[in-house]
Structure formats: C-alpha cells, structure tokens
Design brief:
Layout lengths: L1 H23 L15 E6 L9 E7 L3 E3 L3 E10 L6 E7 L10 E8 L3 E6 L3 E3 L2 E10 L6 E8 L9 E3 L3 E5 L5 E3 L5 E5 L3 H6 L13 E3 L2 E2 H14 L1
Parallel strand pairs: 3-14
Antiparallel strand pairs: 1-2, 2-4, 4-10, 5-9, 5-12, 6-7, 6-10, 8-9, 11-14, 12-13, 15-16
Helix pairs in contact: 1-3
Length: 234
C-alpha cells in the first residue's frame, strides 16, 4: 500500500513537472504587435532599369521574441518573380545599433553543378553594415540568392525592448542593385531561457536545443524517468 501511494505521488509530481516546464521554458515577453514590430519586411523593384522584370527583396529575423545574450539570425533573400537572370555580386546587411560583428554568415546560391548550395562566407565592414561579395550569384525565378547573418544580442538590450535592424544594400548587374533602408526586421527582447543560458542559444525559439533539452544536463524525458525509477526502487 505504501509503495502504491509513493507511485501515485510520483506520477502527480511528474505531471506537475511537465505542466511547469511550459512556464519555466516559456518565451517570456510576448512578441510585439506586428504593426509596430514586424519580424520581416518585403520590397520589390520594377522600373526602367529592370526592363519590365520585377526583382524581390526580403529580410526576416529568426524569431519575433529572442533572449538577451543569445543570438539573432537575419535572412535576406534577393530574387525575381519573372523572366531574366540578374547576377548579384554584393549583399550588405545593416544590423541594429550597438550590435558587434556577426559571428556566422552563409550564402545559399545556384551553382551550375549541384544547384542550390549553402556556403559559409566571411563578411567585411561596409559603411556601418557587413557585406559579402562574389564574382556574381546567378538569380532567376526559381533560384534566389539567400544570405543568413547571425549576431549576438548584446547585454545592453533590455527585456521588452523592440529591436529593429537597419535595411540592406544590393549590388549586381543592371536593375537588381539598390539600397533598401526600410527593409528592416524587428524582434522583442526577453530574458534568456535556462537552456539558452547554459548552451548559448542553439535555438532562439525557446528551448536550449532542437532536441528539447532543458539544459546541458538532460531532457524532460530523462528527468521524469529518473523520478519514476527512484520511486519504484524505493
């Protein structure tokens, strides 16, 4: 009877732990209203320089709610929705004020052999932003060029603060190049979750890693299994 009571208590405790996990690992400050803090923005270009072809430009932050001291990744996409195959040779990202140099940057672009490939690149300072250059990335309606650039979110950012990036700049063949200062992306800063603090934010959307870890010491499943084993063994 005593063992049965202990098991019941164990299951109750486990249920509380699972229910409480949502509180402990929650995103904290909710994402701001998209009318004031838009996680992505979009623009197009069609003028005499594009010869009737529409070029499209997008910038998106990795999440609408990101922990201070973790990282944010901005995804910039340059493409076209119609005929034509411009070549892009430079993309410049302008991060939020106060952000240091990026810690990782990749370019995904079309290759004659192998199609779309992602490669890590090294950005260079460029007038308050960070640029990557190439002899030319091929672009058509099915193959945009994508830049992903990751920054640390500095401790100077306050919880609840809406953090808006700068825009982008693009250079390339006639028509595709332009400056887009209003192509921004915004996120709301929050306190980092326990797993993010321990692991350096392998995932910016809540847990400290993509496999559901609470911290570097184990997952929710591991903890529940340990509780039940101890109760049964006793």
């Amino acid at each position: 009877m005593l063992q049965t009571s202990r098991l019941a208590a164990g299951f109750a405790a486990s249920a509380l732990l699972v229910a409480g996990a949502g509180v402990a690992l929650g995103t904290g400050v909710a994402s701001a209203d998209t009318s004031t803090c838009a996680v992505s923005s979009h623009d197009t270009k069609q003028d005499i320089s594009t010869v009737g072809i529409t070029h499209v430009y997008d910038k998106t932050a990795s999440s609408g709610s990101i922990g201070v001291g973790t990282t944010v990744t901005y995804t910039i996409v340059v493409g076209t929705t119609s005929i034509g195959n411009p070549y892009v040779n430079t993309i410049t990202d302008y991060p939020p004020t106060g952000f240091a140099a990026p810690i990782k940057t990749t370019i995904t672009a079309y290759h004659a052999i192998g199609g779309q490939k992602e490669e890590e690149v090294t950005p260079e300072p460029n007038g308050g932003g960070w640029k990557v250059t190439s002899t030319g990335w091929f672009v058509n309606s099915g193959n945009p060029v994508t830049m992903k650039i990751t920054y640390n979110v500095p401790a100077s950012v306050k919880t609840g603060q809406m953090v808006t990036s700068g825009g982008i700049g693009v250079a390339g063949t006639v028509g595709v190049g332009a400056s887009f200062p209003n192509l921004t992306a915004c996120f709301t800063a929050r306190n980092a979750n326990p797993g993010e603090s321990v692991q350096g934010s392998l995932s910016n959307n809540g847990l400290g890693s993509s496999d559901g870890q609470l911290s570097s010491t184990g997952s929710v499943t591991d903890i529940l299994s340990g509780v039940l084993k101890n109760l049964i063994g006793s």
